[in-house]
Write a structure and sequence with these properties.
heterodimer; A: about 400 residues; alpha/beta; Alkaline Phosphatase, subunit A; 2 domains; eight-stranded mixed sheet; globular; B: alpha/beta; about 35% helix
Chain lengths: ~400, ~375
């Protein structure tokens, strides 16, 4: 238990996060120090979290306070006095990084993992399900400019749904955009409908009701982050320091140069580029991580994510020193990246409440191959029956 | 059935159907009996299939397509351990050092430093009074520079291995070249995402004096190295080139080769991770072919191939699948080991779990030294 926690401990936290912490100070004191930094990182960034995340954080603190027995595994973890220290409150990111490093070096990571699994299981069982306003739909375009036949698509996904080999490509992108637009219009809500693109957006992208994350638009932000990475590499401070410094950038995001008008979205965009690995240099890694984080954090009703070819691999230092959008592209490699990313998006979708009613569609852009998974789709099957994307969406 | 065991069974069933292997309690003709019968002095080559390879992309049914050489050429000649667990820190240098010491090292993975426990190189050289050129480490980057000898006072650098860092050697050779020369070798000087080479710039200047000493010791001219490097495509290809050169020049009894191309996975590009696995598979077969064609090694060399650890599982919500090895899940901790050589009973599968630190004890059995401070257990199947 962290009995040294007081209201003053949160003096430097943003207003909403501070208010939540102070009003729940007794609950927070129940949390063993090994777990505390996880909660502190959330509280420090609370003001820029999505609404659904804010509700989740509040409920998790309340659950921990009301159910101290759910935390017993963490109490058994030995922590040094350097970590069990009120001074650590000021910088939760560094606190978390140091705690993680300590857990590994003291060979207690397995015990921590076991305690975390137990806490999550108990919390999930007790939490009221929060369903999306309409059955969730995730649509993904992969393989722009890639050669068909260079890679056997949907190897990982096929056991969960149906591979379609005769999909009409004309109008396919438009049909996906229409689905996004109509869902956003029929069930408007903040951060409920998303469009993510690794390159220039599809023509006709809806302007209202859809939250957009476009990789090229984040180029100025990416350049700032790459400059920080480059400085860190040249200073020889090491990957751990680099990681912490990037995470700290995230906390400063709202006051930094904004690439996006919405502070919440700006903070999210910075987190994508600072917490994601490879997102700064590969557009495919960016779209994969963004889609996963959109689903995990915003728990939206609709996502349309589109992959663009990434730059070809060079030396990492070289890619950091240059720019994120090199001109030598690797479309065939990007197709493989995106295919795996689609599988990860499916897994993330299935972790959310309402998964049993969700629908999932992947289309090989410009070609006749697609994949569909929904409660109406027979898993592990393949069909060469002619179909349009409209028809696939309607049947899902 | 726990997750470690499930992974093990999947490897066993797959190998059995592929190579007709049998499960056995004994997978070798006793090494000590070979030594007693006057068999020529034994050698050992250890390759870490790294950094960090999952079952999903190697020995699972889905992964077989990426390891044709391990599967079709090496597995039928091997004794295969289906369940090797790494219970230590899942960072590449600290995990590799732990394999070399036979004890879980707990130092900061991102700081180049000697391991705390004695390495197999020190036991080997000190116990058997072997010269320095009889034990070599070929490693991927600066962090591994001090892996050849420990901080243990009874051992230490005087009984340690020669350590080659091929990228740094090449960078030293190219150091004085003009920019055009440097541009010709970008793939070979590739650093990795999690461990960008922080001690220098994009090409930079390693410790030239030390590099020159090693180049000198290797009997390798700058021109030879530059010429050879021009035909290679990755840091691991360069490491294997150096390994073959060491084998042909010194024929050392103990070689520890750490491959690392696979760790490009941290960039999140699945295609590059798969490329790394395919390349590592090919390079392992090249080393085995070198052993078979070099009379100094043929019929007296044991080859051990083992990933340093795995990577996070697809279904682990705390990770991001293949990209990292941060969760400590069974997928990240459980790997396999393949053993080949004259003492190995071929087409054999060992299902019982062993730990990655047990390898040191196995090597001590092959070479006949006393690894007295190892924490890893003897592997009876290889005794």
């Amino acid at each position: 238990m962290t009995t040294w926690l007081t209201a003053a401990s949160f003096a430097t936290y943003p207003p909403q996060g501070r208010e939540l912490a102070v009003s729940h100070i007794e609950a927070l004191r129940q949390i063993p120090v090994a777990l505390l930094p996880v909660f502190l990182v959330d509280l420090k960034a609370f003001d820029w979290k999505f609404p659904v995340e804010q509700r989740e954080i509040t409920k998790r603190i309340e659950f921990a306070g009301a159910n101290p027995s759910s935390l017993t595994g963490f109490s058994d973890i030995h922590v040094t006095s350097a970590l069990d220290n009120p001074e650590r409150m000021k910088d939760p990111q560094r606190f978390l990084a140091d705690m993680t490093s300590y857990l590994w070096s003291s060979l207690q990571m397995d015990a921590y993992r076991k305690a975390a699994d137990r806490f999550v299981d108990l919390y999930s069982a007790a939490a009221e399900p929060v369903l999306p306003a309409m059955p969730r739909l995730v649509m993904i375009c992969v393989g722009r400019d890639a050669q068909p036949g260079s890679w056997q698509l949907f190897q990982k996904l096929r056991r969960f749904g149906q591979v379609r080999t005769n999909v009409r490509s004309d109008g396919a992108a438009g049909a996906m955009l229409t689905a996004l637009r109509e869902r956003a219009q029929s069930h408007p809500a903040p951060y409920a409908h998303w469009y993510v693109d690794g390159g220039s957006p599809l023509p006709g992208l809806p302007s209202d009701g859809v939250t957009k994350i476009l990789y090229p638009e984040l180029a100025p932000l990416d350049a700032q982050i790459l400059a920080r990475m480059k400085a860190c590499i040249q200073a020889g401070t090491g990957p751990e320091v680099l990681h912490v410094q990037l995470a700290e950038l995230n906390q400063l995001a709202p006051s930094g140069n904004a690439s996006l008008p919405d502070p919440c979205l700006q903070n999210f965009a910075v987190s994508l580029l600072t917490e994601g690995s490879g997102t700064q240099i590969f557009s495919t890694s960016f779209v994969q991580w963004t889609t996963r984080e959109v689903l995990r954090r915003a728990q939206p009703a609709t996502v349309l994510a589109r992959f663009a070819p990434r730059q070809r691999q060079r030396s990492f230092n070289d890619m950091v020193a240059a720019a994120s959008n090199g001109t030598d592209l690797d479309p065939d490699g990007s197709l493989i990246d995106a295919d795996m990313a689609a599988f990860y998006a499916y897994l993330e979708m299935m972790r959310l409440q309402g998964a049993d009613k969700s629908a999932f569609l992947v289309w090989f852009e410009g070609h006749s191959q697609a994949f569909v998974a929904s409660r109406n789709t027979p898993p592990g099957t393949e069909s060469d029956t002619p179909a349009t994307i409209d028809e696939l969406l309607a049947a899902a | 059935m726990n997750e470690h065991h499930r992974l093990s069974l999947s490897r066993r069933d797959f190998l059995r159907s592929t190579i007709g292997a049998t499960t056995s309690l004994v997978c070798s003709y006793p090494f000590h009996a070979m030594a007693a019968s006057g068999t020529a002095r034994q050698k050992a080559v250890i390759i870490t299939f790294g950094g960090g390879a999952r079952d999903d992309e190697t020995f699972s049914v889905d992964g077989q397509q990426y390891i044709p050489n391990l599967l079709n050429t090496l597995a039928p000649q091997s004794c295969f351990f289906t369940q090797v667990i790494n219970r230590g820190i899942l960072g590449h240098y600290v995990a590799t050092a732990s394999i070399a010491t036979g004890a879980y090292e707990t130092f900061d993975n991102f700081v180049a430093q000697p391991p705390q426990h004695p390495t197999i190189f020190e036991y080997f050289r000190k116990d058997l009074r072997r010269p320095r050129e009889d034990a070599w480490v070929i490693a991927p980057g600066n962090l591994f520079a001090q892996m050849g000898a420990s901080q243990n006072r009874r051992y230490g650098p005087d009984s340690g291995a020669e350590v080659i860092l091929p990228k740094q050697l090449l960078a030293a050779v190219l150091g004085g070249a003009n920019a055009l020369d440097l541009d010709a070798y970008p793939d070979l000087l590739r650093d990795n995402y999690e461990q960008p080479d922080i001690t220098r710039g994009p090409i930079g200047t390693p410790d030239r004096e030390e590099m020159e000493r090693i180049i000198d010791r290797l009997n390798l001219s700058h021109q030879d190295l530059r010429f050879a490097a021009a035909t290679l495509h990755s840091p691991d290809e360069l490491s294997v080139y150096m390994t073959k050169h060491v084998m042909r020049t010194f024929a050392p009894s103990l070689i520890f080769l750490t491959l690392h191309d696979i760790d490009v996975a941290h960039s999140g590009a699945f295609s590059l991770y798969l490329e790394g696995i395919r390349r590592t598979d090919r390079l392992c077969a090249e080393i085995w072919a070198e052993i078979q064609s070099n009379p100094e090694y043929k019929d007296k060399t044991s080859l051990f191939i083992m990933p340093d650890f795995g990577r996070d599982g697809d279904n682990d919500p705390g990770g991001n699948g293949f990209q990292h090895h941060r969760t400590g899940s069974p997928s990240a901790r459980t790997t396999w080991m393949m053993t080949l050589g004259p003492a190995v009973r071929q087409k054999t599968i060992v299902e019982r779990p062993i730990e990655s630190i047990d390898l040191a004890a196995a090597v001590s059995g092959v070479l006949g030294f006393d690894a007295r401070l190892v924490q890893g257990k003897r592997i009876p199947e290889l005794a």
